[in-house]
Amino acid sequence: MKIEVKAIGTVLNNIKAETSPGVIKEQVSIIELDPVYMQGLKDIKTCEYLDIVFYFHLNQEIHLIINSPLVQDKGVFGTRAPSRPNHIGITTVKLLSVDENRLRVTGLDAIDGTPVLDIKCCDTSIFDKESVHKSIQGENPRIDIDRSILSVNRDDLLYKAGQLHGHICPGIAMGVLCGAEIMKMIYLNKEDPYDYSMTAEQPNCVLDGIMFVTGFTPGKRKLILESGERMRYKIVTKEGKGWLIESSDHNREYINRLLPDEMPKLERALRVLNMDFKKIFDVTELSGTDK
Ligand SMILES: [Zn+2]
């Protein structure tokens, strides 16, 4: 079905060429509405946030798989990329002021001259509710954790892991980072985490972080504790395929160098999340053939 739409206004701002969405969002943009639609702005000031529907007029390419600096090898509908079948952009913006047919907004990621197709009061009620419907949560209680792993939302994982652990510390942050990397490796291989189990030695803050993010728990017989003092985690399938992840002295030197003692605990934990995983841990791939 072919549908014809008409621009109702235009975006005005200082961004004249395509650039990263984050840079454009920091701008204040004006949405200049065609005066024939002026009446439609009545009481718009009651909306704190607006959804702006616009047309990516400079981008005529269509890609169903997106590879960009922000996303790698992802289907277009799971992204906000402009090279989509209908080239439609939708962004939630904050309304700053209204001056006749001009709306001043911030948070819009559309460049100067972008045709605006619609303006809607943003329905934020979903954000106030539980993030996942209970029926889904019942079938897949880890859905929020998996989503955070896949979207690399490590802060969120850290705060949730803190609910299990009782406090937020650099150790649990190391565990969260490690757990997220393990899950990413499993998902990249298109495998089921349920086929893996973990062997660990020292029960400490790091282990709680890994356990929370991966779901390798003793209750599911997915975590075997062995005697020993090393920070060493073996994540393998029944066939012995997987990874050996360990932290040695040179890894700890790297961590200590980046975490000054005087820095508050929470800040140190958040900083760990942005460290280089491969410098915190040594990872050895296990093929499962050698015993
Ligand atoms: Zn701790």
Task: Compile the SSE list and pairings.
Blueprint: E1 9-12, H1 21-25, E2 28-33, E3 49-55, E4 65-66, E5 74-75, E6 88-99, E7 102-106, E8 115-121, H2 125-128, H3 134-139, H4 143-150, H5 154-165, H6 170-188, E9 196-200, H7 205-214, E10 223-225, E11 231-237, E12 242-247, H8 249-258, H9 265-273, H10 277-280, E13 282-286
Parallel strand pairs: 9-10
Antiparallel strand pairs: 1-2, 1-8, 2-7, 3-6, 3-8, 4-5, 6-7, 9-11, 11-12, 12-13
Helix pairs in contact: 5-6, 5-7, 6-7, 6-9
This protein binds zinc ion (ZN).
Structure, explained:
- By secondary structure, this protein is α+β, with helices and mostly antiparallel strands.
- The protein folds into two domains: 9-127, YaeB-like (Elongation Factor Tu (Ef-tu), domain 3, Beta Barrel), CATH 2.40.30.70; 134-286, 60s Ribosomal Protein L30, Chain: A (2-Layer Sandwich).
- The chain has helices spanning 21-25, 125-128, 134-139, 143-150, 154-165, 170-188, 205-214, 249-258, 265-273, 277-280, and strands at 9-12, 28-33, 49-55, 65-66, 74-75, 88-99, 102-106, 115-121, 196-200, 223-225, 231-237, 242-247, 282-286.
- The strands form three sheets. Strands 1-2-7-6-3-8 form a six-stranded antiparallel beta barrel. Strands 10-9-11-12-13 form a five-stranded mixed sheet.
- Helix 5 (154-165) packs across helix 7 (205-214) and helix 6 (170-188) runs parallel beside helix 9 (265-273).
- The longest helix has 19 residues, at 170-188.
- The N and C termini lie far apart (60 Å).
- The model has no long low-confidence stretch (mean pLDDT 91).
- The structure holds zinc ion.
- Zinc ion is lined by residues 165, 167, 169, 171-172, 205.
